[in-house]
Design goal:
The structure is a homodimer.
Chain A (H helix, E strand, L loop, with lengths): L16 H10 L4 E5 L2 E4 H17 L7 E5 L4 H12 L3 E4 L6 H11 L3 E5 L3 H15 L17 E5 L13 E2 H7 L15 E7 L7 E6 H14 L7 E3 L7 H4 L1 H7 L3 E3 L6 H11 L3 E4 L1 H8 L16 E5 L6 H9 L2 E9 L4 E5 L11 H8 L4 E2 L3 E8 L4 E2 L8 E7 L5 E2 L3 H7 L5 E9 L5 E6 L4 E3 L2 E3 L1 H9 L4 E11 L3 E10 L13 H11 L8 E4 L13 H11 L14
Parallel strand pairs in A: 1-11, 3-4, 3-5, 5-6, 6-7, 10-11, 10-12, 12-13, 13-14, 26-27
Antiparallel strand pairs in A: 1-2, 8-9, 9-20, 14-15, 15-16, 17-18, 17-19, 19-21, 21-22, 23-24, 25-26
Helix pairs in contact in A: 1-2, 1-9, 2-3, 2-6, 4-5, 7-9, 11-12, 12-13
Keywords (chains A, B): ATP-binding, Ligase, Nucleotide-binding
Protein name (chains A, B): Putative 4-coumarate--CoA ligase
Organism (chains A, B): Lupinus albus (White lupine)
Chain lengths: 576, 576
């Protein structure tokens, strides 16, 4: 039976492009994209992408060339997720909150041939290209020619499709490429599902960005996983609050096509825009980090949180951090249904999802929140997930307390880091991808992350989970956000240092009603002594990445400052 | 980027066994199987399968050996879907309604090493082995030894786990193998996803059975497709009305494991057993051919159809024939929600599913039924589906009327026919699998089957779709079932001949109230003249396959008899 020959009829390569072709045929007249006053159908989107792919080829883009894009969640950004691979090329979406220097580093490392820039980001892109030019030690700006006369990428500006601004940067404009292309272009045929489809740079906080390469197979299977894990049925209306540059929108760029859903694009994720779009288009699904819950709840658009009640439920997939119980209760009370997932760039987005069990509906809200704060079980197409002692590679017992590193394997795991074989083989050694996250397995098989390995605070030999201290801080009625990091300590090696922001929405209370000492005394009453932060700082704002993750690296630098007179020689530098 | 090496961490082979391992970890304590008084959890089922796989290896079952089974939908049948591939072997489930001769042919052709037989089928199995022995020209019955002293398979009887009968056939019994095995057995590692997992003989009505080989990859992707297409969410309770021997239960044997659902096993699919199990276990999903709707509605268990109202909706996936409008309306009125799919053994079960669109809910019931009778759009993991003119290989226009053959390609298509390279290359030629079904594409992209190519009646040069004539017959209030086949005709070449059964549930009406002439006259008023059956036969029962499909081959033989005096030399024999 092994000898039955493979044929074209039974060995189609797995690629998200088949979702798109299928959508263009099965859901031809259904809305694919809605962006303010502009709407497309799946047939139109398909034809636009064929046209764009044609134009990319005409600009000499070839197999495995990198095409970079710096743009918010606009239609062009969505279309490029299909048009670029349809030209045989690899899509590189750049985090729009990176600075010009980071962007230059990515353009340089990826050897991008084309660089699509949304009109809003033209100033930053100009600066990045200037820096890139210095890196490349060349003097010709490629934006004024149609060929690759240098190592600099050709720039294409994306003007707003709904309300054009006329802002240009070089000669080429996105709509013009679509207009000049051929809607009957026959897409580049993917022969090998292991071929690259996307290159995503992780926003490394401590090191140079790493270029994570996704295969067509990995993107395909991960997209299916997320639809299955989130139980996204047919005809979803998906609101793009999560940036598409983040793991290709947790693979939902491709996933919404698989479901023939409608993509509601958003330039800005203000509370006002979110509510307006939900109401206008009957949004059914959206993704965001828990910090966005605050944006939604602390609506600055004149809508009072108490007045909000959604007409029909909107499902939120959240990740990046466990949703704190209080926040979860508030957001669910106004009609959002939250699913918690855990993803990582190297795993092509979500790898674990906290699958809800019906029996939990009978539990008290607080207990439900605790269960939901867990990262959960592996998504369906992941080969395997485990929590292991990395020294012995043995699995930890399912006891809800033994810590180990979360490791993953499966076809959704990246091909590797672009041009970095050393780092690749380190990340993928022993047959597993090592996430760098430390967790436990509960007796029911659900995994909970206790910390990033580098965020664990080791105090007098005790491992303190910064997440655990934070979760207790979150229960304080005045705490809006909390982040705990290691601070050098002359006696214990490290000790916890907490940074918090205060909830200002409580009537009759001012900021001065609560002091740092109050918080420390609250902690003393609510956690083990060795876990109590030695220093608490109330701040106006916590430093965050583009995706809303708190940047603990910056806080660690600050914490080091607070303790500088005391420790000096004691702290192991490697932990910073 | 092509050069990034594959590693164990990112290239796990696709196999349904990962669904099972995952279920044993993520849903360890959830019910996996319920069968009368017997219940297992996923952890228990996993351990039982490890034990059984161990015992299979101990019985010298090796990689790619075929293990056959003749059993109804009992726990053992479900377990073997995992235990057999966990031993590296290939599962061959045999249609229990085949006769001893057919079974002997399958055992001979598949070279089965083991033959599991449910106690109910021991007499038939004995007869089959006798016939096999004659085929093999050997005199040793292998059932009395533990080794392969002949080409005959070793027999293992499966006694009823819930109420053992003590019936034996040879020395070995299923529960004993489970008991003697090792629950910690480490399953055979699937290295290549293209390796075979199952061998399913199509119940060929005109030719010798063909052995359709499924790969692990195909089984995996097809399972995901069906869960997605049917929108089967988490925690389904699946009632096994569809035989598992039919395309491995349309891949749901593996699919229910993927969802961590509960399998409610059934020895007999009587209306009484169906209702009893639905009520006791809160069944959410089941599959069956439309003819089973009649069993459900014409309940012989003392329950009147009018009294039936399900407590909560049960989703039915139906296939094999389009559900007639009247039947659809009746079954949905008592709480079943019907999804229509189209499958074929060679495509590893369902290949098309009639995805329901919300906007259709506003249409009149009759129109909804018409839309639902269509076979629909391709399941998600199928590479592509098309309707083509096989002579030119051109696609037919999406006009709802141009006929062509339905062709499929994708990883869910079989590896090929076992030991039949000629037939394999014929079925998979030109890059497509040719279904032998004739259909159209509507303007919305939905496909509708008009006929099996061999069922099309060619009368005076006109193509008559037998399905179309049947659908009009079904609208007659007294018609319960209808089947139309070609009958030789001296003038027109062929003409339609209808076989019908009558609805006996109508009060105050007897069978004699309606005559064959009445039906012909009804047809004359309701269809084009050339389509009107020249002969109508009212029969007590239509001949059916084990899965409830009407056996048109037998009817064609009968129809030939009716017309025998008239035609003789005219009919092309190839069409019979």
């Amino acid at each position: 039976m092994d000898n039955l020959p493979k044929s074209e009829a039974n060995t189609t390569p797995l690629t998200p492009l088949t979702f798109f072709t299928r959508a263009s045929k099965c859901y031809a007249n259904r809305a694919s994209i809605i962006y303010e006053g502009t709407t497309f159908t799946w047939k139109q989107t398909y034809e636009r992408c064929c046209s764009l792919a044609f134009s990319l080829r005409a600009l000499n883009v070839a197999r495995n060339h990198v095409v970079s894009v710096l743009a918010p969640n606009i239609p062009a950004m969505y279309e490029m997720h299909f048009a670029v691979p349809m030209a045989g090329a690899v899509l590189n979406t750049i985090n729009t909150r990176l600075d010009a220097n980071n962007i230059a580093t990515i353009l340089h490392h990826s050897e991008a041939k084309l660089f699509f820039v949304d009109y809003e980001y033209v100033p930053k892109a100009k600066e990045a290209l200037q820096l890139l030019m210095e890196k490349e030690s060349t003097t010709t700006l490629a934006t004024h020619t149609n060929s690759y006369s240098s190592n600099l990428p050709l720039v294409i500006v994306i003007d707003d499709i709904n309300s054009p601004t006329g802002i240009r940067f070089g000669e080429l404009e996105y709509e013009q490429l679509v207009h000049n292309g051929d809607p009957n272009f026959i897409p580049y045929e993917i022969q090998d599902e292991w071929a690259p489809i996307a290159l995503n740079y992780t926003s490394g906080t401590t090191s140079a960005p790493k270029g994570v390469v996704y295969s067509h197979r990995g993107a395909y299977l991960s997209s299916l996983s997320l639809i299955l894990g989130w139980e996204m049925g047919t005809e979803p209306v998906y609101l793009w609050t999560l940036p598409m540059f983040h793991c290709n929108g947790w693979t939902l760029t491709w996933g919404v096509a698989a479901r023939g859903g409608t993509n509601v694009c958003l330039r800005n994720t203000t509370a006002h825009d979110i509510y307006r779009n939900i109401a206008m288009h009957n949004v059914t699904h959206m993704c965001c980090a828990p910090v966005v819950f605050n944006i939604i709840l602390e609506s600055k658009s004149g809508i009072e949180p108490n007045e909000i009640k959604l007409k029909s439920p909107v499902r939120i997939l959240t990740g990046g951090a466990p949703p704190p119980a209080a926040l979860l209760e508030k957001i669910e009370s106004i009609g959002f249904q939250v699913t918690h997932a855990y993803g990582i760039t190297e795993a092509t987005g979500p790898a674990l999802v906290c699958e809800w069990q019906r029996q939990w509906n009978k539990l008290p809200k607080q207990e439900q929140a605790r269960l939901k704060a867990r990262q959960g079980v592996s998504v369906l197409t992941l080969g395997e997930v485990d929590v292991k002692n990395l020294d012995t590679m043995e699995s930890v017992p399912r006891d809800g307390k033994s810590l180990g590193e979360i490791v993953l394997r499966g076809s959704g795991i990246m091909k590797g880091y672009f041009k970095d074989p050393m780092l690749t083989s380190k990340a993928l050694c022993n047959g597993w991808f090592q996430t760098g996250d430390v967790g436990i397995i509960d007796s029911d098989g659900y995994i909970e992350i206790k910390d990033r390995s580098k965020d664990v605070i080791i105090s007098g030999g005790e491992n303190i989970s910064s997440v655990e201290v934070e979760s207790i801080l979150y229960k304080h009625p005045r705490v809006l956000e909390a982040a705990v990091v290691a601070m050098p300590h002359p006696k214990w090696g490290e000790s916890p240092c907490a940074f918090i922001t205060l909830n200002k929405n409580i009537k009759g209370k001012t900021e001065k009603d609560v002091t740092e000492t109050d918080i420390i005394s609250y902690c003393s009453k609510n956690m083990s002594k060795f876990m109590v932060p030695k220093v608490v700082k109330i701040v106006e704002e916590l430093p965050k990445t583009a995706t809303g993750k708190i940047q603990k690296y910056e806080l660690r630098v600050k914490a080091k400052g607070f303790a500088v007179t005391q420790y000096h020689h004691i702290l192991p530098m490697s932990r910073l």
